[in-house]
User: Fold this.
Amino acid sequence: MDEAVEISKVIANEHRMNILKILSTGPHNVNELSEKLGLPFSTTAVNVKKLEDVNLIVTELVPGRGTQKVNSKNYDRIIIDLFSSDTAQDKNVITIDMPIGEYVDCQAEPSCGLVSETDYIGIQDDPRSFYEPRRREAQLLYFRVGYVEYRYPNRIPYGNTATEIQFSAELCSEAPYHKLDWPSDITVYVNDKEIGTWTSPGDFGGERGFNTPEWWQIYFTQYGLLKHWKINAEGCFIDGVKFSDVTIGDLNLNERPFISLRFEVKKDAVNAGGLNLFGTNFGNYRQGIIMNVYY
Assistant:
């Protein structure tokens, strides 16, 4: 957090943000930056030094007309975790990141398909492709109506009781190509218990996802929303807002060797707008479907 504070102070400045924007196109020296920004050399040099101090840019000596200092951007992305892992509760937590292709059961109706990091898996709009051995390589899966179900190993130590279970996944609706206004009712089940339905507002495209491979056409689905489900003794919450009275006691976590999670778009849903589910190397978030169990 201390590092985050220092970096935030530095980038809370229009000139420095513009320097980073220019450097994203390629290396520049201070004279070039000064000219493009329309600022005095001395002002530009001060701002470059502040960016150097927090390691957001790097300066190298390169041969040219004599030796000159050239600045380059060090990072494409900044992530700040707004939590501390040094808590007593975190010592009693089980975390599993499930790849999206590791489902144990499924049903899919067109439009539907599986996509790896490099190509399509099977035949698009053919539900049989969901049973291909290569499905484990999937980084994006989608369907208009249907479900996928996952089973996590139940690692709750014998003699202990789960107090909270959390899931997070990146997902959105499924429209032809993409469509921002395309609602879809996505229902979630844990251990066969329906915990609630979330309505995705649309299918997001037109702007490449951070992790979406370059070969995937920009007018196709690019990224989703990262949603968080939490179930404890008080009920079920999505992104911190209670939306179901299902409690962790209703899930009977100690009765099975696994914990099941299912995403479904029902045929009779008010908004049967499909589902896109994103893996580690697709969309905006480098994760599969993460489960945290606190005990």
In short: The longest strand covers residues 145-153. Residues 2 and 141 are 39 Å apart (CA to CA). The first helix runs from residue 2 to 11.
